[in-house]
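=== RUN LOG ===
request id: a7f3
mode: sequence -> structure
chains: 1
length: 291
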Amino acid sequence: MSHVLAVDFGGTKTAMGLVDASGVVAARREMPSAHTFEETVAQLEAGLDGFGEPAIAGVGVIVPGIYDPADGSAWAPNLWGEDFQPLKEPLEERFSVPVAIGNDRTGTVLAEQWVGRAQGMRDVVFVAVGTGIGVGILAGGQVVEGAHGIGGAAGWMVVGGRWKPEYAARGGWETEAAGPALARRAGRKTAEEVVAAAREGDEAAIDAIGETADLLALGIAGLIGVLDPEMVVLGGGLMQAGDLMMERIRWKALAWTQPVAARRVRIERTALGAEAGLLGAARLGWRRLES
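=== RESULT ===
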């Protein structure tokens, strides 16, 4: 059976897999992320060798940052520094098959439409909440990437009335509602610690989760009003605490957004978990082959 090589570059780890046209992951590997571009390409070569040098029909890649389709370069400061790096041409030269590349926001929303909660839908928003916040957007069946590949960088949305210096680097919504904000709000080192404390009944942790859920809902309400999606899917590391947050996020977002849209949109938690990125990369690869 034919497969694409799916590559999900992350800030701390890179996942690779062989994925068939129905979204089944036949083989998977994970390794710490390389932090120079040359090491990254070598890592991919070694990773593919680890699968036994299989015949692949194409390659799909997602990066945590910006991909510029105009010149095939990627900006991923958590991986390769602040400069755009050529990505498509070196990969096509190495693998000699069609290569499709996108940002992680694009990948996750395509994965949800392909094999996730939003199968068959044409207007979908995927909100990934972890150490940052990013949004993948499908509008009329088309991915919204913007003029420079930056579309969906929703962490820079405004959710407060006063600008703070830290917003310049991370954006207002991300600073106030991502995982580090939850930890800060509860006086803990990590969001995971806050979630664990809340499950044990710690009132300060419960309050911090509630406040963070409200701020997430505020941003989601704005996205619903602007984009009128059929579904908003929530994913990312912070959604491991979805059982503590989803009902509050859903209620608040629907209360604050455009009322007709509120009656028609669904707000759901992803069922793809940690595989969303890998499946998103695979979907990019298969879409390239189908075009």
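=== NOTES ===
DSSP finds twelve helices and 13 strands in the chain.
The longest strand covers residues 25-32.
=== END ===
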